[in-house]
Design goal:
Radius of gyration: 17 Å
Helix content: 25-40%
Order of helices and strands: HHEHEHEEHEHEEHEE
Largest sheet: 7 strands, mixed
CATH superfamily: Vaccinia Virus protein VP39
Structural class: alpha/beta
Strand order of the largest sheet: 3-2-1-4-5-9-8
Bound molecules: S-adenosylmethionine
CATH class: Alpha Beta
Distance between the termini: 40 Å
Number of strands: 9
Length: 230
């Protein structure tokens, strides 16, 4: 089943996501870090791209803080929820329906900041190449990037999933109940993927819980703070 169809089904009948309209905590920490260490403040109205914006919990929040936000999302249902919430909050966010595994519909150097909050781990290798290239093209020189993505190093649940239901590409597994393919990354894979275009300012591991069929699983995530090369 195409991954876009899987996400659409997921938003219509959630099995994996626990929808909330509260902004994601690690994302908030990143914006605190930018303020403290790089004097980059949301009140200065940076342009921000939210990659896989889902129900808009992060994009809409960032817009309420003054940023000029755009979001790309593959699920029409999620996009509609995000737009509705933006209206309720009385903010403008430019939501685009489409895949971030395809060419982004934005000119080069459009954004000061991009965020990818557990979104790109469902891309395949060919799409991931387009996504990193497009991120590089549309982020301004010296712009910042926040990444939260699935981690392989030290994650027992990830190792079990890789063994029990391997996916079509390296370090991927298929989540059987929903047929979603996910990739888990080693530290070296993150470094290889992003250092051609980014300086990695911080890369840490964070333990969080994910839900599947009403059960919680402990998982590890990479939290990356990056700066686009000039
Ligand atoms: C785990 S959810 C995270 C959503 C959001 N970033 C958040 O923190 O709430 C992953 C999101 O990425 C979207 N997504 C996955 N693959 C995509 C693709 N190729 N293009 C656009 N959106 C995609 C999914 O529909 C989903 O909304």
């Amino acid at each position: 089943m195409p991954q876009g169809t899987i996400w659409e089904k997921e938003y219509r009948q959630p099995k994996l996501l626990a929808p909330t309209d509260k902004p994601q905590k690690d994302t908030l920490n990143f914006f605190r870090y930018l303020r403290k260490k790089h004097s980059a403040r949301l009140e200065d109205k940076p342009t921000i791209l939210d990659i896989g914006s889902g129900n808009g919990r992060n994009a809409n929040y960032l817009a309420t803080m003054g940023a000029e936000v755009s979001g790309i999302e593959i699920s029409e249902t999620a996009l509609r929820v995000a737009q509705h919430e933006a209206q309720k909050k009385n903010v403008q966010v430019k939501y685009t329906l489409g895949s971030f595994g395809d060419t982004f519909r934005f000119p080069e150097n459009s954004f000061d900041i991009a965020i990818d909050v557990t979104s790109s781990n469902s891309l395949n290798e060919a799409e991931r190449e387009v996504y990193t290239q497009e991120l590089h093209r549309t982020l301004k020189p010296g712009g910042f990037f926040f990444l939260k993505t699935l981690c392989l190093d030290g994650d027992k649940n990830a190792k079990n999933l890789l063994k029990q239901s391997p996916g079509p590409e390296k370090h991927t597994y298929i989540m059987k109940k929903i047929e979603l393919v996910e990739k888990v990354f080693t530290r070296q894979e993150i470094i290889n993927l992003y250092t051609p275009h980014f300086e990695i300012l911080e890369l840490s591991k964070k333990e969080s819980y994910t839900r599947m069929n009403n059960r919680s699983y402990k998982r590890l995530f990479w939290i990356g703070y990056m700066k686009h090369h000039r």
